[in-house]
Automatic annotation (TrEMBL):
It comes from Tenggerimyces flavus. Residues 6-160 form the NADPH-dependent FMN reductase-like domain. Coiled coil: none annotated. Pfam families: FMN_red (PF03358). This is Flavodoxin family protein. Transmembrane segments: none annotated. InterPro entries: Flavoprotein-like_sf, FMN_Rdtase-like_dom.
């Protein structure tokens, strides 16, 4: 079985080495993917000087082109975001805005450069909103050419008005853990199918 590659973009607001629940769920997804011969790397986006914009390169030291190169080399994109005010983090939204540039990038047959790439999502927060965040992120990723597998999202939401974060809540094997395991299995399966049989040109 051929080895696939995944890249996790952690969209926490916290720079390394601060503890991050988004970082944790991203790493859990990457770990689950290893059971399916997928190797992966993680980028905490706020550790890099990614500029606001909707182009491939905003210039003046923009770090996005280097991150984009890692995205384009992957078979599976993992995004992980916290919930803030019921929304994906501002960092996640910035990443989606930068991915908007892929609408202008096509191969020799006119397909978007992201066709054939699978995207999955991990969401964490202390309030309701995981379904809303998943819907927003998946719609944007699908718009720019990524393929979303069945059960492609995993999440954990703590009790409202409480302060326990995902990275403090201990193992959750029958809830988030089970969803993460299914996500990994379906994502790897779909990525292999697309790697062996790309979408036809329009």
């Amino acid at each position: 079985m051929a080895t696939l590659r995944a890249l996790a973009l952690c969209c926490t607001l916290k720079k390394s080495p601060a503890p991050s629940s988004s970082d944790l769920i991203a790493r859990e997804i990457l770990t689950a993917l290893t059971d399916h011969d997928v190797v992966g790397d993680l980028v905490r986006v706020v550790d890099h000087d990614v500029r606001f914009g909707v182009s491939i390169d905003e210039g003046d030291g923009d770090a996005w082109p280097q991150i984009r190169a890692q995205v384009m080399a992957a078979d599976i994109l993992v995004m992980a975001t916290p919930i803030w005010m019921g929304q994906p983090s501002s960092v996640a939204k910035m990443v989606l805005e930068r991915l908007d540039a892929e609408l202008s990038e096509t191969d020799e047959q006119g397909r978007l450069s992201t066709y054939g790439m699978v995207a999955v999502l991990g969401v964490v927060g202390n309030e309701d909103g995981a379904h809303h965040v998943t819907a927003e992120v998946f719609q944007a990723l699908n718009d720019v050419g990524f393929t979303i597998p069945a059960a492609g999202g995993t999440y954990w939401v703590g009790e409202a008005m409480q302060k326990t974060n995902y990275d403090q809540a201990g193992p959750k094997p029958n809830t988030t853990g089970a969803a993460t395991k299914t996500l990994a299995s379906n994502a790897a399966h779909l990525a292999r199918l697309l790697k062996n049989s790309q979408y036809p040109p329009s």
